[in-house]
Q: What sequence folds into this?
């Protein structure tokens, strides 16, 4: 995981960047970018982390940098850091497409490539290990691109976009999910017209038809389903997108107020529902959407140590046994919005674990285990670093 922490002195704002190993809870500060470099690392959701295929156990961090101009309509370089060499480098792009003014909605490491997401238009992608990477553009499915001519990044309905659109990896493929039938005008958000959730799969990023339509479910059908009624979820209220199950692309997670529920989109069935407040420090419901939660595969260590007044050896420590199956670990990232001053930004990191059992219905009381403020025992074998790129927003 690539992360950043802001420190501020009188009139000075400094950003320190860290590489965090989720397997053992350690973090290493990255060295500063050399002052004579033509480009510098900048805050924003445009930093990606990817495993180095030529050097097992090592990784590359890469940030896409725009060409000079009043709007970000083209990129010309990658700023890279390699854990193998411990050095920063700048790679000039061999080619890059022109595009609409680009926003930053995170970076995905997938299929040996990095994918920079603008949820309004599509993805830019390249192989960051090439000496001169070739940047390519894959647009969103037909009819899904947003037209915001004349709007700057500060005028984008960024929060609404993150609540209703996402791209995630599931079962080895990239999936685009969108809640349709909703307005992106803040003054008209409470008047949906036949809202529905739809999913596409990326099958040929450089072909004429890059996306394959998968499924769609109207919220009228979802609200009427007996499983939705039994879960006690509100009628007529469209939820926010959270994530796609990494082991079953038919299952999409939503936030409905303080509840997190899993929905099989094809059958309209709610598989699980439980209270889940992403920001457990300030308990702010504003963080209940996809920007602050992510998922990846990880093998858990066999035991988790927690503080307890009772223990078998009288030491005050208890050990909770975990089954050795694979889990989908969710990373909840809470951060404040409404200011570009990173000295005022609170970044909250919590850990939530969901066991993926896509063919059964479960209560989330059986599926969810909170791991806040617990020390984890060292795993039996090293786990790989996972990237959640772009920890701070570059727009409110």
A:
């Amino acid at each position: 995981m690539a992360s950043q922490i802001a420190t501020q002195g009188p009139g000075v704002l400094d950003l320190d960047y860290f590489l965090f190993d989720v397997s053992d809870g350690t973090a290493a500060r990255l060295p500063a970018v050399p002052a004579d470099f033509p480009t510098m690392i900048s805050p924003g959701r445009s930093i990606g982390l990817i495993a180095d295929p030529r050097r097992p156990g090592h990784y590359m961090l890469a940030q896409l940098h725009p060409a000079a101009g009043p709007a970000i309509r083209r990129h010309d370089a990658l700023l890279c850091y390699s854990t193998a060499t411990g050095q920063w480098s700048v790679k000039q792009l061999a080619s890059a497409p022109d595009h609409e003014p680009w926003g930053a909605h995170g970076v995905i490491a997938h299929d040996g490539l990095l994918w920079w997401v603008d949820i309004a238009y599509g993805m830019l992608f390249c192989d960051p290990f090439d000496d001169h990477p070739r940047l390519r553009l894959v647009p969103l499915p037909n009819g899904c691109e947003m037209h915001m001519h004349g709007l700057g990044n500060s005028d984008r309905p960024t929060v609404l976009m993150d609540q209703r659109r996402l791209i995630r990896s599931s079962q080895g493929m990239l999936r685009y999910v969108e809640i349709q039938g909703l307005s992106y005008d803040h003054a008209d958000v409470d008047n949906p017209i036949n809202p529905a959730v739809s999913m596409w799969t990326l099958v040929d990023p450089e072909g004429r038809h890059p996306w394959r339509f998968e499924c769609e479910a109207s919220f009228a059908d979802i609200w009427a389903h007996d499983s939705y009624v039994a879960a006690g979820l509100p009628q007529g209220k469209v939820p926010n997108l959270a994530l796609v199950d990494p082991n079953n692309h038919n299952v999409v997670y939503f936030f409905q107020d303080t509840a997190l529920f899993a929905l099989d989109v094809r059958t309209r069935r709610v598989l699980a529902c439980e209270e889940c407040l992403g920001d457990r420090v300030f308990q702010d419901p504003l963080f209940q959407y996809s920007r602050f939660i992510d998922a990846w595969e990880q093998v858990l260590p066999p035991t988790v140590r927690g503080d307890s007044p009772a223990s078998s050896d009288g030491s005050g420590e208890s050990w909770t046994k975990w089954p050795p199956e694979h889990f989908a670990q969710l990373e909840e990232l809470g951060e404040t919005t409404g200011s570009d001053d990173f000295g005022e930004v609170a970044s909250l990191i919590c850990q939530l674990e969901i066991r993926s059992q896509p063919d059964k219905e479960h209560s989330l009381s059986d599926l969810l285990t909170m791991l806040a403020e617990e020390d984890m025992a060292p795993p039996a074998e090293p786990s790989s670093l996972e990237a959640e790129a772009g920890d701070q927003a570059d727009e409110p």
Summary: Confidence is low (pLDDT under 50) at residues 5-13, 302-396. The first helix runs from residue 158 to 164.
